[in-house]
Design goal:
This protein has helices at about 15-20, 40-50, 50-65. By secondary structure, the chain is mainly α.
Length: about 70
């Protein structure tokens, strides 16, 4: 399926949390700035910040809801 992300959206959190391979290909329709976050740093932030942990849980739930969607 094709998802359109907007400014401030994130991708790749499922792979970084689960430690598995990436399951998506990302292409930009316009110029962008991408940031890369190492897994250990990401997991540390989740452990220290309840808001970040809640966000990641929401994202993972949203990803599984749309997995395989047309």
């Amino acid at each position: 399926s094709l998802n359109m992300l907007e400014a401030g959206d994130a991708f790749g959190e499922r792979g970084i949390v689960e430690g598995g391979a990436r399951t998506a290909t990302v292409r930009a329709a316009s110029e962008l700035t991408a940031r890369r976050l190492h897994r250990t740093v990401f997991l540390a932030v989740l452990g220290l910040t309840p808001e970040a942990s809640a966000w990641a849980a929401t994202q993972a739930s949203s990803d599984s809801d749309t997995a395989g969607a047309p």
